[in-house]
Design a protein that fits this description.
The protein is α/β, with parallel strands linked by helices. The protein has seven helices and seven strands. The chain is globular, with a radius of gyration of 17 Å. Bound molecules: nicotinamide-adenine-dinucleotide.
Length: 247
């Protein structure tokens, strides 16, 4: 499959997990990927993992730094000759039992997960071609389903979902699609860092996929589909990729 032949793609969170797998998948399908992350070493490992026919260039940036996002999108447009697809994957997770929830946790989660996503959308939209432009924002199944001890994370992802659905309606007249993709549990460094400690995680037994956790590559496949011409009539609808864990 070569659905992205020389398609200019701007991708955040590309240094690890789902973002790295997405970069590898898109480059394998011919895309020209401008890969962004705050982790420069991780970006280098993504470049090493990517194999043509597309190509990849990287830039270290913090998605919460407004000036840096403005400069990054400008640099992507110059480097790629435009941007047709924006994929926002960068995100963080915190386990926050309600009794110990802090304002700092709330602000940090919203800053990275929502503000970072919103800034990249704001800066990229003027460059997206009408009729062909696509935005894929990674939300989470936690946005719409109860996940104990994740209230702040879930709220930030609920915000990403609502933001994306609104943007889809706002940009529909320009033929720019916006698709929120909501993973369930994916085996990445983000989930490996979640340990129950002395918290009661038994509820998670009820919402676990019988298929086990997804691989980052399975999410990359769904993101690539959402960004591709195969999904040309898909917009303003959440693509939930959770192995049936909430059915
Ligand atoms: N892994 C899961 O089970 C799961 C489930 C639902 C949603 N998600 C979402 O998928 C996305 C990717 O998660 P992952 O599991 O691949 O995690 P990951 O930790 O492997 O990758 C996240 C990437 O985002 C980058 N990042 C974080 N903050 C940043 C910032 N301020 N500026 C620039 N880059 C930043 C990190 O450096 C990292 O490379 C996240 O938005 C996450 O919330 C993951």
């Amino acid at each position: 499959m070569n659905r992205f032949d020389a398609t200019p793609v701007l991708l955040t969170g590309a240094a690890s997990g789902i973002g790295r797998a997405t970069a590898v998948r898109l480059v394998a399908e011919g895309a020209h990927v401008f890969a962004v992350d705050r982790d420069q070493d991780g970006l280098a490992r993504t470049v090493a993992a990517a194999d043509g026919p597309g190509r990849i260039v990287t830039r270290a940036a913090d998605v919460t730094d407004e000036e840096s996002v403005v400069a990054t999108v400008r640099s992507a447009v110059e480097s790629l000759g435009g941007v047709q697809v924006l994929v926002n994957v960068a995100g963080i997770h915190r386990t926050t039992p309600i009794e110990s929830l802090t304002v700092a946790d709330l602000r940090q989660l919203f800053d990275v997960n929502l503000v970072g996503t919103a800034l990249f959308c704001r800066e990229a939209v003027p460059h997206l071609p009408h009729g062909r432009g696509v935005i894929v924002n990674v939300a989470s199944s936690a946005a719409a389903h109860g996940n104990p001890y994740m209230s702040a994370y879930a709220a930030s992802k609920g915000a990403v979902l609502a933001f994306s659905l609104t943007l889809a309606a706002e940009l529909a007249g320009r033929g720019i699609r916006v698709v929120p993709v909501s993973p369930g549990t994916v085996a990445t460094p983000l989930t490996r860092a979640v340990t129950p400690g002395d918290l009661d995680f038994s509820y998670y037994g009820r919402i676990r996929s019988l298929m086990g956790p997804a691989t980052p590559e399975q999410l990359a496949g769904a993101i690539a589909f959402a960004a591709s011409p195969d999904a040309s009539y898909l917009t303003g609808a959440e693509l939930r990729v959770d192995g049936g864990s909430h059915t």
